[in-house]
Write a structure and sequence with these properties.
It comes from Entotheonella factor. The protein is of the alpha+beta class and about 120 residues long. About 55% of the residues lie in helices and about 20% in strands.
Length: about 120
């Protein structure tokens, strides 16, 4: 497991940060940061009001709460169970494996070694 982990999104008007920190082997703690940089005092008051009335529910409870049912029961020592909606991660993995520099280098060296062995056996 690679923790702590930070996820940050810049939405032009505010920056949303979600950070995961391990507590022990089985539990982790989520920290949410909502950051704005208003240039006037009234904008600061507006941002605080908007956060408590709308953004806190939208980002922290509604958006992040949707994943909770799936993530809480996730086990990383078992095979993945992918669905039809997981097409993007599958295609991204396929793209990396087929065209990634390290994978291409590894294929080139393994085919060069195979041709060398083949040329030695035919002579």
């Amino acid at each position: 497991m690679h923790l702590p982990c930070t996820f940050r999104v810049d939405n032009r008007n505010y920056i949303y940060t979600r950070c995961t920190v391990p507590i022990d082997r089985e539990q982790s703690r989520m920290f949410y940061f909502y950051t704005t940089r208003p240039r006037a005092a009234w904008k600061r008051v507006r941002d605080i009001l908007v956060f408590y009335v709308w953004r806190n529910w939208l980002q922290n409870y509604n958006f992040s709460g949707q994943d909770r049912r799936l993530v809480e029961n996730q086990h990383y020592d078992t095979p993945e169970k992918l669905s039809g909606t997981d097409l993007f991660p599958l295609e991204t993995r396929r793209l990396i494996v087929n065209y990634g520099r390290d994978f291409l280098r590894q294929r080139e060296t393994s085919t060069e070694g195979a041709t060398d062995i083949a040329s030695k056996t035919t002579v």
